[in-house]
Amino acid sequence: MCWHCDNPRKTHDDYLKEEVRPLVREYGWMVQAVESGTAQPALAYTVGLTDAGLPELVVTGLRERRSCQLLNYFAQQSVRSGPPEPGEVVPAAVGWPAFEVVPLSAPSAHLLTAVLMYGEEFSALQLVYEDEHGIWPWDREFRGGTGGQPVLGARGRG
Asked: Which domain of life is it from (predicted)?
């Protein structure tokens, strides 16, 4: 269940004040997960990297726990040594597929908690992953599970 569902009388400002800002203050970012629905697969993204002058990070089509692990790892790497570059391919590692970094064309259309924090002007990068056969979502043969893996931007250098 989501925070808003558990707290129906509270506002978006309450959510920022009680949940988001304390996590961002303590850790430098938080991960916002959005459950899959009938029309869209799951989505997860960071909120807080913008405060450090970094793009927010996004992943689609993964379960919440896996998304959080992935985004926390890449957020930590971004804070330490800079964000991945658009078009960069991060090789597969133990337990993880390869990723290609895709800039979001309209981050404010998808990252609603980040919009509440920063308004419409922030950047984001999607970590797009290959399937178990090494096939990418832009390839016809891609098998990304139920709902697939929407790519929220255009491939290539930003």
From this structure: Bacteria
